[in-house]
Amino acid sequence: MQFLQTKKVVAWAGWALMMILSVSLNAQNARITLKMPKKSGYAISLVAEKLRYYDSPAIGLTDVEYQNFGVFDDSTKAWAIAELALSEPQLVHLNFTDAGPTMGQSAGSPNRLLFVSPGDKLTITVNLDKSLAFEGDNVAAQELMRDCIKENHYEYLPLFGYRPMRVDNSSVLPKIDSLKAARLARLQAVRSGVSDAFATYIEATTHNEAKMMELAVVDKNLRKGQGVRLRGNDRRTIEDITLQNFKVLPDAALLSAAYRNELRNFLQYPAVQRFPVDSSKGFVLGKEAVEYAYQLSEQQLNEHAKQREYMLTHWVNYAATFQENMAGAKNLLGNYEKTYPQNKELIAYFNNIIAAKEGMYVGQSAPAFLLKDNDGKEVSLSSLEGKPVCIAFCFNLKQHELIMKPLEEKYRGRMTFVYLNVTPATTFESWQPLAEKREGVVHLWASEEEAKQLKNTYIPTMKYPFVLIDAKGKIVRRWIPQEFPDNATLQREIKDIMGR
Asked: Is the whole model's pTM more than 0.70, yes or no?
């Protein structure tokens, strides 16, 4: 990310004129100019949404990178020019931040999405009531986005009369259909003035958001308003809605989060129906199911190169991340490497994950570490031997402690609970006062460099933050998911180890 220097500054009477920053790519420049009223009482942030797989701290491999281009408010009394370099269309979030009410706006967030293409020159006038007006290139596209697309499509449900406490919300279905029809009619009206990529994005978003809202209504009705697991036939009803209605669109459809969600389901559901998942294993797809989904993705997306690569990457990542045995991940990675040898960073990432997980099979010695406790003393994993150990990797300060205190009390004197802080950009001095001393509890802090080493050995993520180690320092269970509200799997595993 880089800032482009401005060559001149011009005052704007009554307005503060500001510009978004840039990403350096070998591409055409797109320029967005913001005109904001003075004394508005709010700030605007611009965040670009780039579709690419990358290693995100605490999450692992994620498919969208959010690039923040700055926060602007009316304290800026001049204008500056900067550019966003694009090789293909990209979504940009225009978000408002303030403490006061939104004047003149209907219910819902005033935040909006922009559809920005290479070479666009766009000026956005932001009014006091947070309404937007556009000048420049592709105005018709931006106006359609402003009027018909919300940042989160579930915002529509309460507007349509959906009530979370009501079991039957079928009355909202005609309104969902009306929204879908209105969007498509609006697209048809401007079709000659917008790009094929934009039209594909709107079609993908419209059809799949409508289907996801419909699924929310059907799912609640099938569960009868209770938070219970769907029965086999009910799950099949949900799956069939996607399988019967999803349509593969051109690659520009990948810009739509709703489309990506339903694309994954469209390719996963046949695998699940052919190789049913085991509820005792957290409904994780088995080796055969993932391999089948990978093959199905190759076949179904053969004429859609970007979607094919997107989904094949997804399945390799699924196998490497969620499965305990790495045999399936190795097989898929071998195929993937032959197909996409240019994806060297991703291939290296998957190889590191597989190697680390193979080093943490049940019965193997847990990887050693030496970290500071809240007294500043160095504590090694080997020094904790003698009692079983439960490690909880913490990606936020004091994460896990509230819901794990009952476990601490239940097994006090019999098990050691280790809260290992890997919160990014957290100094020892800021962490130390928050580490509350309790019997049977060890608080450990990892520096940025130590956190990187732990990432290469334990692969901690927010999805799988727990490790159980026996009294001799051997791995009992590594891949224990974080579950709300009470970490049922962790409780079950601890009870098992302590009962032996």
From this structure: yes
